[in-house]
Design a protein that fits this description.
Layout: E1 2-7, H1 12-16, H2 18-26, E2 30-37, H3 50-68, E3 74-78, H4 87-101, E4 105-109, H5 119-134, H6 143-146, E5 156-160, E6 169-172, H7 177-185, H8 188-191, H9 195-198, H10 209-233, E7 239-246, H11 255-264
Parallel strand pairs: 1-2, 1-4, 2-3, 4-5
Antiparallel strand pairs: 5-7, 6-7
The structure holds zinc ion (ZN).
Amino acid sequence: MNILVIYAHPDDAEFLASGTMAKWTQEGHEVYAISATDGSMGTRVIGRTRAQVAEQRKNELTRAMEVIGGHEPIGFWFPDGSLSDHREELKEKLAYSVRKLRADRIVTLDPWLRYEIHPDHITAGRIASEVAVFTCFPLYFPKQLEAGLQPHQPQEVWYMVPTDRAPNRIVDIGGTFEKKVQSLLCHQSQVEMLADWFLPDADPTRLTVEEREQLMSAVRDVLRMIAGGIGQRYSLQLAEAFYAIKTGPGHFDMAEEMANQMLKEMPRDVEIL
Ligand SMILES: [Zn+2]
């Protein structure tokens, strides 16, 4: 299976899905990561340039994908923070990647989370979903077909962090939890920002070796707490949770679930005509 994980920023999936991604690569699936933005706002250090931050984050994602066992990341590198200004270009590039890689499954951020405040997360998740539905139509970016690509539709879209509704895909990551930790730790620029939280007395721009080790172990504990909390509900030690929807004809497999959902939310005074 070809699995395309679409991030808004270079570390988005490492917190939420990298145990699952590593498991998939171990099972022989092809796992690709696309970062829509360059992550160039991701620093609190005054004096760094956007270009420097972007370069560091590109390298961090490359290393993380090595740990996960996936392909070298594909970067679109739109400017961090203003992805919504590039919606049309993002659609076209994503459609190209979905068709070129013949993606069977898309994994992305849930753009409908009620309190999702990051505009890049909303844009990435929304456009990824839209593209997954439209790439089967030859008249969607028809020039891509003239260039030799074929229409193609991914079967499913999986959303990370499905906190607004019950997940319907639980992945046992007991065997890949360590890879999850290591892949997240590849993102040193982001882990350093957690120093404020875990090591309030430390200067995050000049962490000592000991402080750095404390930070790593705090990150591991948080990941274990989250994965353990999800796993506990399903008699697993460590797990990641997703909400998956089917696209195309498979969408109708979910008709019963959709009807139940709709009925649950129906007002009591429904008028039947
Ligand atoms: Zn992000």
